[in-house]
Amino acid sequence: MRRLSLLALLLPLVAVPAQPAIAQTSAVTCPVRVDPAAFASEARLSALADKQATFGARPTGSPAHADYVDWLEEEMSAIPGIQLSALPYTIDRWDNLGTGLTVGGTAVQVAAPVPFSSSTGSGGVSAPLVHLAAGTNITAANAAGKIVVRDLPWTNVPNLLFYPPTLGYSMYDPGLTINLLGSESMEAPAAADADLKAAAAAGALGVIEISQLPHAQIKDMYAPYEGLPYGVPGAYVGADQGKQIKDALAAGQPVQAALTVNAAWTPTPTRTLLATLPGGNAQKIVVESHTDGMSPVWDNGPLTMIEMARYLSSLPVECRPRTVQFAFVTGHLYQHLTGPNVREGGAGQLAAQLDAEYDQGKVSSVVVLEHLGAKRYDAVARPNGLPGKQLVASPNLTELLLVPVSESTPLRELVKGHIEYWDVRRTAILKGLSAADLGTVPRHCSFGGEGTPYNQHLLPVISPIAAPKTLFSPQFGPEAIDLQVMRKASLAFTDVVLDLGPMAQTAVAGDVTAMRQQRASGTPGCA
């Protein structure tokens, strides 16, 4: 979709009660779209990903996370015209001081503690083991006084859901690489949240979660990430260690286990970094990604944002009709950032602020960038009869890029055009990632990730996200990113931001305007 053909549809720009837009003169020539020669090369993106990897895993508020945000601030401060500010928070940071497990007196290797587990101290807890299979509720009758063993489930989402007329708006898969009758699946460590809560309520003394993946691929993985303490300790083990535990139980005799999760909570500052590039009008387009994560692919949105900001700053202000604010958000791995009653992380805090500003004409739209260019890894049987599965990279495929876009046909067409122009293959533009509910505003409550709170706060949102199976583990580094595809996606969404500049706000908002009116009249929002 060419920008010149869009202008006739999308102009004139709706005025807002802020500084007036600067009139474009005939002496200024603005780009029709991003010049790839003026944008970051694959080598530059590779260097950024390698630099990011040097920080290692970045739980919220950890020294590594703080160092990463400081580095992002240095990168952004070097870009001409950028104005920096921050939104500070204080959290109780959770730190793992050591984990251990013995089963029947034999040591069993632990891959990771469940984040925010109850601390046992260095002495651990000792109790009989009980394996409760999937579908068996954890109750006082079967778990009190015991250490519960659970198998992590795998999610399966049919591919047909990503096509029209279900959740899909359009699909770009010119190579026909997606099996319409197949499904997208990955292991779901987030299920540990319900297990640990149920175990605490039942009076259990601990939980061991067994992965189908080997220890080497899940070592130090991090999920779930609520930011609230669980009432019991929990730990993950790999497939081989899970077999070791189940073999011990298979004898039919009581098996005693000792589980240690030694952890500490420390009051710690963290912050959302804001980098604002003024445009001809103060009404802002917000480009957002998170900074706390386990791997480069989890947090490569900020790398694209650096290069997007660098490119946009090189243009005359007349070519930036709206201000662009880059938000490097904290609290993605600490969802209850401000307390137990609100689960939205830093994205939710920023979304609430933007919601309040929207009706004042200060905000146009939000573009959230997550997991760009994520390579596809398939879970295949392990060799030599070893238990479970292992993740193997596809030689030429990336994970399906899901792009929920709020209820505006011009906005969805804008994204569709740039995805196709830059050939960002295996991309589904979606209406949402949950079933429509005509009784709420918005109709689709989930956008699948960081874009969800902006959508729920009834802001115009474009929210690309992939769901790579490597997401939760720091054992996968920059090699899990397809840099060519990441660059194509970066170019496409930079073009999207360029086109959002002159786009009429009525076209940007679409049905969001009516939904905000319905909310004001009492229509319920998302629970």
UniProtKB/TrEMBL annotation:
**Signal sequence interval, chain numbering:** 1-23
Q: Which UniProt keywords apply?
A: Signal
Q: Please indicate if the UniProt record lists Signal as a keyword.
A: yes
- Gene3D superfamilies reported for this sequence: 3.50.30.30, Zn peptidases (3.40.630.10)
Protein name (record): PA domain-containing protein
